[in-house]
Design a protein that fits this description.
Length: 407
């Protein structure tokens, strides 16, 4: 942008952000401004000729090979996971899948779409019972837990960068009794089923009388927890993590967008692959060009608060990094699936705002709770607008299936 235009433009953006921080911008305005920014990004990304488009992509490919595997690794972790798991339980689906879901039809719920995408991963990665599986960047374990339940003889190792995520997954893998005191006016044993407000989790309450007037002891058995013994979770920074183990299948869902040097990353991952292993990579992307998330101007809001150090790959970008792996298959998922996913997250956030407000206050402080509530809502709106742009045919999701290259 011309310097003479940039100054008043930045001033206008600052004014808009000031209004956003006070939660004064209507959603319709946020959506309109987001679409204007996306149109500007497309004008920047599309080149006048096919040769220039290819040259631009190749220049990006070569630049990545000179970078570290990841940069500013602590910032994305704090940006997304500073909020406790309780927030994401209120916003995401019951599997806590913090990535694109797959809506088979208009009637699909978020939970249906989570399951459909998890099933798609298993199908395309050719998961079979008895395999050893590595889930790189496992988040809250949506895929690890799904595979562990569906393929009970598989042995799953998940790598995440958050101790709270590890604790959540391990909690889901266990089960047991909890106890509390309940005031019982009837002095009779009671037995009933209670549906939790969180994700329709079923709890079995067994009431046992004790010699305390009007009180009894309640033992609570949580059937939602899974009693899984085939899941191990490791907390590590993937850019520096090393191990000697090898696996039959490796899957990575929306982690590559946080990385830079794909040559070094795929070399690292290939060392964990057996000779007949398969690697499934899922990342969001633009169909034609790639770019870095950089905080250069006032309107680089998403980068500043949610995606520092991130990358927007092109749909075919990994095809240029086949030094240690060879592509077996390559698929695209229309961006409307991600747009609808994020719209569902936004809707759940709005529906659960009474419960979310104290979480925001305890995390960011009362003085900043309104601002960060607006930021998170705007983040979900921006994701929906990004992937819904041009009917989902600009930004989308790519899946790659690789085999190990044997020299």
């Amino acid at each position: 942008m011309d310097a003479l235009i940039q100054v008043p433009y930045d001033a206008t953006v600052r004014l808009m952000l000031s209004s956003l921080e006070r939660n004064l911008l209507p959603d319709v305005v946020i959506r309109r401004l987001t679409r204007l920014l996306l149109a500007s990004r497309l004008r920047w990304g599309y080149k006048p000729s096919s040769q220039l488009q290819l040259s631009d992509l190749l220049q990006f490919v070569h630049s990545l090979k000179d970078m570290p595997i990841a940069i500013k690794t602590d910032l994305p972790k704090s940006q997304h996971y500073e909020l406790p798991t309780s927030f994401f339980k209120l916003v995401l689906g019951k599997n806590l899948k913090y990535s694109c879901c797959y809506f088979l039809d208009k009637s699909s719920t978020l939970e249906d779409a989570e399951k459909a995408m998890l099933e798609l991963y298993c199908e395309r990665a050719q998961i079979k019972d008895g395999q050893s599986v590595l889930d790189v960047g496992c988040g809250w374990g949506s895929l690890s837990l799904y595979i562990a339940q569906k393929f009970s003889s598989c042995r799953i190792t998940g790598i995440c960068n958050s101790k709270t995520q590890k604790a959540y997954i391990e909690e889901q893998c266990s089960y047991g009794w909890q106890s509390c005191i309940y005031k019982n006016h009837s002095f009779k044993p009671l037995l009933f089923l209670f549906e939790s407000t969180y994700h329709s989790t079923s709890y079995f309450y067994k009431m046992i009388e004790v010699p305390l007037a009007h009180f009894c002891l309640v033992h609570i058995y949580n059937y939602r927890e899974l009693k899984l013994q085939n899941v191990e979770i490791i907390v590590a920074d993937i850019s520096t993590f090393e191990m000697e183990a090898s696996f039959d299948r490796i899957l990575s869902i929306e982690m590559f967008e946080h990385m830079k040097n794909y040559k070094a990353l795929l070399n690292k991952i290939s060392k964990w692959m057996k000779e007949d292993s398969l690697l499934l990579v899922n990342y969001f992307c633009h169909k034609a060009f790639a770019y870095h998330f950089e905080d250069k101007n006032e309107d680089d809001w998403i980068t500043r608060y949610f995606f520092t150090g991130g990358t927007m790959p092109a749909a075919n970008l990994l095809l240029y990094f086949q030094d240690d792996v060879s592509v077996v298959n390559h698929w695209l998922v229309n961006g409307n699936h991600y747009a609808r996913t994020s719209e569902e997250w936004l809707k759940r956030m709005d529906q659960n705002m009474a419960s979310i407000k104290p979480i925001m206050e305890s995390t960011y402080g009362k003085d900043s709770a309104v601002k960060w509530t607006a930021y998170w809502r705007t983040f979900f709106i921006s994701v929906a607008e990004l992937f819904g742009y041009n009917n989902g045919e600009e930004w989308m999701v790519a899946l790659f299936l690789f085999k190990k290259k044997i020299n």
